[in-house]
């Protein structure tokens, strides 16, 4: 019998995999680690229009437009900034933020701890914003400053899937961060 978590806590093993779209076909690069995960906060996106008739709520439906929120890490790695945000590195190794760069969407893979299982997740189509830039003077204590990026996780354009999760007893668990797992139709198995 499966032992489900009663609670979740922690955030770790945050990875990204850049999306490439050619002729409507989506592929994902090999996931790369974003070390120093601090916080992930996502709220559902979509509407729930209500239709009233006969003096009552006659019909209601909701749309799933994914999630929006923030990803907070110690520091976004330079490799992420180049791969996703379009930063450019010159011949001398100096990194430049390019105002004309178009950010790339990516899959976001991560893990929540829990009392029983460390459930792993993937968001299939994440659009990034530029991370905030901040720091503070050092006093008698050193308090690390983090970087936060606003993100929107939309349904994948090819499948409509927003996210997936895997638990430790499933075969895909051990290879979760090696490649982005995509939907397999139960009829095709």
Strand content is 35-45%
The helix count comes to: 1
**Whole-Å distance between the termini?**
23 Å
Structural class: mainly beta
Low-pLDDT runs of 5+ residues are none
The largest pleated sheet is described as: 9 strands, antiparallel
In percent, how helical is the residue content?
under 10%
Number-wise, the strands total 13
Rough outline? globular
State Rg.
20 Å
SSE ordering: EEEEEEEHEEEEEE
Overall residue-averaged pLDDT value: 89
Descriptive account of the structure:
The model has no long low-confidence stretch (mean pLDDT 89). Helix content is 3%, strand content 42%. It is mainly β and 189 residues long. It has one helix and 13 strands. A hairpin with a 4-residue loop joins β10 (106-114) and β11 (119-128). Strands 1, 2, 3, 4, 7, 10, 11, 12 and 13 form a nine-stranded antiparallel sheet that branches. Strands 5-6 form a two-stranded antiparallel ribbon.
Please give a quick description of this structure:
Helix content is 3%, strand content 42%.
């Amino acid at each position: 019998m499966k032992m489900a978590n009663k609670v979740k806590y922690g955030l770790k093993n945050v990875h990204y995999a850049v999306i490439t779209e050619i002729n409507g076909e989506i592929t994902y690069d090999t996931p790369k680690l974003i070390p120093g995960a601090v916080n992930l906060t996502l709220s559902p996106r979509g509407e729930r229009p209500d239709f009233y008739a006969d003096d009552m709520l006659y019909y209601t439906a909701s749309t799933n437009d994914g999630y929006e929120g923030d990803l907070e890490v110690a520091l976004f790695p330079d490799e992420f900034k180049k791969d996703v945000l379009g930063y450019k590195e010159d011949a001398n190794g100096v990194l430049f933020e390019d105002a004309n760069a178009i950010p790339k969407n990516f899959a976001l893979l991560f893990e929540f701890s829990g009392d029983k299982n460390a459930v792993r997740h993937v968001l299939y189509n994440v659009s990034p914003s530029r991370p905030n830039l901040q720091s503070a003077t050092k006093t008698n204590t050193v308090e690390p400053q983090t970087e936060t990026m606003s993100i929107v996780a939309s349904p994948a354009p090819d499948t409509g899937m927003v996210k997936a999760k895997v638990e430790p007893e499933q075969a895909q668990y051990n290879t979760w961060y090696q490649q982005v797992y995509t939907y397999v139709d139960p009829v095709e198995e």
